[in-house]
Amino acid sequence: xxxxxxxxxxxxxxxxxxxxxxxxxxxxxxxxxxxxxxxxxxxxxxxxxxxxxxxxxxxxxxxxxxxx
Length: 68
Hints:
By secondary structure, the chain is mostly beta strands. It has a single domain, classed as SH3 type barrels (Roll), CATH 2.30.30.520. It is 0% helix and 49% strand. The protein has no helices and 5 strands. The protein has a 5-stranded antiparallel β-sheet with strand order 4-3-2-1-5, with no helix packed on it.
């Protein structure tokens, strides 16, 4: 989707696919980073697996999602 040195804001979750590397940013900065497991565009949700093995549900309304 992007080159490794460029981060792109994800406005539509439908562009994400399992395996994509994403970062979730809040007002405090970077909160989570990991690989996409599941995308539910109709719910505005994406589930990721972090590098620590944690599974996180990200709401596109709570976080700014960027590609890694």
